[in-house]
Amino acid sequence: MGQELSAADLIINPDGSIYHLNLLPEDVADTVITVGDPDRVPEVSKHFDTIELRKGGREFITHTGHLGKKRLTVVSTGIGTDNIDIVLNELDALVNVNFKTRQVKKDLRSLNIIRIGTSGAIQDDVPMGTILASSFGLGMDALMNYYMHELSGDEHSLLDGIKTHFSHFKGISPYITAADNGLLNTIGIEMEKGITVTAPGFYAPQGRQVRAKNAIQNLIPLLSSFRHSGYRITNLEMETAGIYALAKVLGHKALSVNAILASRVNHQFSNEPAKVINKAINMVLEKL
Ligand SMILES: O=P(O)(O)O[C@H]1O[C@H](CO)[C@@H](O)[C@H]1O
Ligand SMILES: O=c1cc[nH]c(=O)[nH]1
Predict the structure, then answer these.
(1) What per-residue confidence (pLDDT) applies to 1?
(2) What range(s) does the Nucleoside phosphorylase domain occupy (predicted)?
(3) Cα-to-centroid distance, 242 and ligand 2 (Å)
(4) Given the CA of residue 238, which atom of ligand 1 is nearest to it?
(5) Which of 128, 151, 228, 279 allows an S-S link to 155, with CB 3.0 to 4.6 Å?
């Protein structure tokens, strides 16, 4: 018999749903689309043929339904890898823990987790309007300091290169995880590819300066000049690396698709964000 998870470790609401997502185990499809913005959930589910449930709490809004024969769940994560910690752990518990016995199931389910997010590009040849699939998620936040995780050979070699390139960054311990290869080569097949940096903020952690002065000067040129084994850093956002790393730890498959709204090298921000996001949604849904 496996260990029984305590009421403080796995929090189940009185109606049997999980603490933050407010979902029951049967509410989660095998393919889960995550978006940051709760208002983006209906923008995805409006393409479904049927919607069987709409639930939520806080920034975590979920719709589950069918597109043709495929059952899909779309859930909003809100902003940041602290929220990704909640969403990935709760999705995993919903499918891999028996809520009656509070024990981990013997046969584990592996979800396909596809993020459709917005992002800023840091390469000249990645213009606004590009739809980019993240080959790797490079985390500059602290989430993975708290989890045991292992790196593949490719991830190790890239991380060594990154640590050398950014050796003068103080107090940051980057982590890197590859996309699921199968999802990258199907859903991402026609998309631009690159390493996506996940930042622990939108302003100074992404090289923006409004009034508070930035401690790291020239962050964007530093990121964009990194080259290793044919890879380069293409874009910045706030969730991908956490999703990739926790999905791998928990045995799920993940891909992040980025609607590029900003060109940080040309100092531009899109005046038609909805159109770019919709293009990303359509490109993902037509491959499912
Ligand atoms: O559009 P979403 O998916 O929220 O993604 C991006 O937009 C937010 C910042 O504006 C961050 O969450 C960032 O990752
Ligand atoms: O530049 C950008 C655009 C969208 N989201 C981000 O996190 N950064």
Answers:
(1) 60
(2) 32-266
(3) 16
(4) 14
(5) 151
Half-sphere exposure in the Cβ direction for 93 (13 Å, CA): 26
Of the candidates 180, 133, 139, 143, the one whose C-alpha atom is nearest the C-alpha of residue 163 is 139
ipTM of this predicted structure? 0.99
* Spacing, Cα 118 to ligand 2 middle (Å): 6
**Cα(206) to centroid(ligand 1), Å:** 12
Q: Are 26 and 11 in contact (CB under 8 A)?
A: no
**Is 90 exceeded by the pLDDT of residue 156?**
yes
Distance, CA of 182 to CA of 109 (rounded, Å):
17
Q: Which domains are assigned to the chain? A: 1-109 (3.40.50.1580), 116-288 (3.40.50.1580)
**pLDDT for 191-218, tens place per residue?**
999 999 999 999 999 999 999 999 999 9
Distance from the Cα of residue 227 to its chain's centroid? 23
**Ligand 1 closest atom vs CA 116:** 3
**Nearest alpha carbon, ligand 2 atom 2:** 120
